[in-house]
Amino acid sequence: QAQLVESGGGLVQAGGSLRLSCAASGRTFSTYAMGWFRQAPGKEREFVAAINRFGSSTNYANSVRGRFTISRNNAKNTVYLQMNSLKPEDTAVYYCNAIGQWPNLPYGDWGQGTQVTVSS
Is the pLDDT of residue 108 over 90? Predict the structure, then answer.
């Protein structure tokens, strides 16, 4: 069973940037598409971004396209989310997971997530 450990969250002002990391273990990382999801208080978890197993194709939610960039390093079993031009509405707990059905359906257990808070 895979273990996913997210990190890199924090408190940032609107317009700022953060880079999230997700370290995976327990499965053959490079064989899976990976994605980022987020859950804001009182809301359901939603899709943010995905990257195929080769790193050659990506998909983004409309709300983050042009501001966020997903990438991966298969040698390090790590997927990243570079978040620029952050807005208060980006405040949420961010999770990574494998993509079970491209382009945005998650598969597998969730990690603990990392909190991102954007102040106005």
Answer: no
